[in-house]
Specification:
With about 350 residues, the protein is α/β, with parallel strands linked by helices. Strands 3-2-1-4-5-6-7 form a 7-stranded parallel β-sheet, sandwiched between helices. Strands 10-9-8-11-12-13 form a 6-stranded parallel β-sheet, sandwiched between helices. Helix 1 crosses helix 12 and helix 5 packs parallel to helix 6. It is globular. About 45% of the residues are buried.
């Protein structure tokens, strides 16, 4: 039985795993968690929510304010609520009714991690799927993977895309000749091919790589930087804060994201929301996110990637057209819609309690 901070008679219908929502510079899962948690509490003020934290994050949670209709609880054992929503595909013990959000399954489909991590991740994913009455997938691509890799019938899977956080202020810095990549440096992100494609871009342009450089296969990807004849034109920034990331989006003239596999690809929405023209992969969930508002390439074809970069860097009119199309596209992804569609899933499972 989890520890409760409330009186013995208090009862909460809805519980959410809030573990990953803490911190100032959140991961994609963290951003999603906060948007769903606080969005549900705000749009359903007459319902009571329990925010559950795993033991290693529970004490830290006291530094985070909770809505008036939400209370924090320690996640240990089966959550004592009518419906529990695992916001990051991890469910050790099910509640009366359990929903889990699946963000990606790329660990199971490619050599993007160590064998040990792949085995642990795969077991955790299978356990979460087995213990869930319904699964929310953040893209059709992820829904397909949940169905095919975990054997879950499609009727239990609901696609609810992420939202875009639109900039509150217009850019106040001039665009520079920067091709920007944001993401962890690892094999899956395809940074090595991006570096080699950049070598064909005309002089005067810089490639900026922003993201932690300790991912699986990072050393091999970064070796392409050190070996590049354009090494002096490549900046490897490492981890950047939220504020630094926003400034980079404002400065960049092109956003390049040739990842090999994404469950969604939140940096694509961020770039488009900041009116940065995008080139990305014709693979996994990325075409779902960008629609016809970006240049799509085969991420394994360095020549095709290089041609796209050359086109974007040499044609200002193309950049402006894609920037405008990207902004329109980003506005179609609203966190309010993600919250509403999540509530609809709850209504299917608990029709009498979601009125």
């Amino acid at each position: 039985m989890p520890v409760s901070l409330d009186a013995p008679g208090d009862r909460y219908v809805f519980g959410l795993d809030a573990t990953y929502s803490l911190g100032r510079n959140l991961s994609g899962v963290g951003v999603y968690s906060r948007q769903i948690m606080h969005g549900l509490a705000a749009t359903h003020p007459h319902h009571r929510f329990a925010y559950y934290y795993r033991p290693h994050r529970f004490l830290r949670s006291f530094g985070d304010l909770t809505p008036r209709n939400a209370r924090r609880r320690l996640l240990r054992g089966a959550p004592h609520v009518d419906l529990f929503h695992a916001l990051n595909q991890r469910v050790e013990q099910r509640a009366r009714v359990t929903v889990s959000t699946f963000h990606d399954l790329f660990v199971m489909t490619g050599e993007y991690s160590s064998p040990e991590f792949r085995a642990r991740f795969s077991e955790q994913a299978r356990e979460a799927a087995k213990n869930s009455d319904a699964i929310i997938a953040v893209s059709r691509h992820t829904a397909d993977q949940v169905e095919q890799l975990l054997g879950i019938e499609r009727s239990r899977i609901h696609v609810v895309p992420h939202g875009a956080t639109m900039p509150s202020d217009p850019p106040n810095v001039p665009r520079e000749k920067i091709i920007l990549f944001i993401g962890a440096i690892q094999k899956r992100k395809n940074v090595g091919r991006l570096v080699r494609a950049f070598e064909r871009v005309q002089a005067g342009w810089r490639l900026v790589l922003a993201g932690a450089s300790d991912g699986y296969g990072a050393a091999q990807e970064l070796a392409a930087v050190e070996l590049s004849p354009r090494r002096a034109d490549i900046d490897v920034l490492g981890y950047v804060t939220d504020g630094e990331r926003q400034t980079l989006y404002q400065r960049a003239s092109v956003f390049a994201f040739p990842s090999l596999d994404e469950g969604f690809g939140m940096p694509l929405l961020e770039a488009m929301a900041h009116r940065v023209p995008v080139v990305t992969s014709r693979a996994s969930a990325m075409p779902e996110v960008v629609g016809d508002a970006a240049l799509l390439v085969d991420p394994l074809d360095e020549h095709e990637l290089a041609e796209a970069l050359v086109h974007l860097t040499s044609e200002e009119e193309l950049r402006e057209r894609l920037a405008e199309a990207g902004l329109i596209r980003a506005r179609q992804f609203r966190w309010e819609d993600a919250v509403a569609k999540t509530w609809q899933v709850y209504q299917i499972l608990l029709p009498g309690l979601c009125d």
